[in-house]
Amino acid sequence: MHLPTQSLLILALALFGVAHPGEDEAPISEAKKLEKRAYHSNVIESYSGCAKKLAESGVLERADLRRRSTVERHRQDLVARRQQQVLGPRPGVSETPDSEHSLQLPEQWRKSHLVTDPNIGLETPENELFADNGTCVLNPEGTIGPFYVTGEFVRSNITDGQTGVPMIIDAQFIDVETCEPVEGVWWDVWSCNATGVYSGVLGFENGNQDDKSIVNATFLRGIQQTDSEGVAQFQTIFPGHYNHRATHMHVVAHVGNVTQLPNNTITGGTVAHIGQLFWDQDLVYEVEETYPYNTNTMPITPNAHDRLFFDEIDGTTSDPTFNFVKLGDNIEDGIFAWVSMAVNVSASFNPSYSWRLTDHGDIPESGGDSPI
User: Fold this and answer.
1) Residue 73 pLDDT exceeds 70
2) Are 245 and 301 spatial neighbours (Cβ–Cβ below 8 Å)?
3) Taking the complete model, does pTM exceed 0.70, yes or no?
4) Cys-Cys with 170: which of 47, 290, 338, 358 at CB 3.0–4.6 Å?
């Protein structure tokens, strides 16, 4: 379902569930699919009336200005860095996967989310970048998988020195029932690094099994609280890939009576959503040509071959992918990606986890070396 620009909004799914590398996840049952379709229908009907209110209240205009400002700031930083250093040669490029994979998706999911001409450069005006806004309808609880670590730190920069394509992600949460931005959502995110490894967990074919230091790592994990505009941002890198899963990022939305502790973690509240977001396949292939992504010998799984991706878009008009713009002339210069998400804050789920972050690093719980 697509509403006109300015009165918006591209309604989309935030997919959920994850398999660990090599895991053959069971398909979603027909009963579950029917349940989800009914949910989508109800939420879309409720949310479709929000477009006018969001426009009249200035939410859409302020979001547009915020995104422009963010891109301009990071482009200025990029120019400053270029003035201080001479860029080296581009790393070796691996063989690009067959782009025909993406053509297996229905047409509406093959559209580009690059919100400008592909030839965008540093001089492209910001007012040409944000002619469209996307909204993701958050679905009922899905399988969270074995890589969720509870107790992660509240912080906006989750890079922790990881090498990869720099990326700023921006999310705005909208209450599907009130059509207002949701202040105080604690947005919890995690993803693998450029070579397909998650921090904080052992086992599950997660990188080098002999590298026990991974348990004490926290890279590409973090939590941010949304502001009065329902917005939170992270500085991260574009995720890599691993066996049998398309490139994705995990998201959890904590709401309610959440408290930030002195050690910069959170406690309390409820979980209104567990999900995943994806990227255009062409963007994934472009990133995967660069170092260190191109050192990963595992095959890339396209969105069209990810069973969870297909299960979630089955019977819907939703779209689970980030909109994005390149910050410079080369993909290595970085990406700004954004999404707006309609969430039912009264929903409550109980996410399972097999690892917990402590003062002494991550510790396994409930047999943390086997999938949930």
Assistant:
1) yes
2) yes
3) yes
4) 338
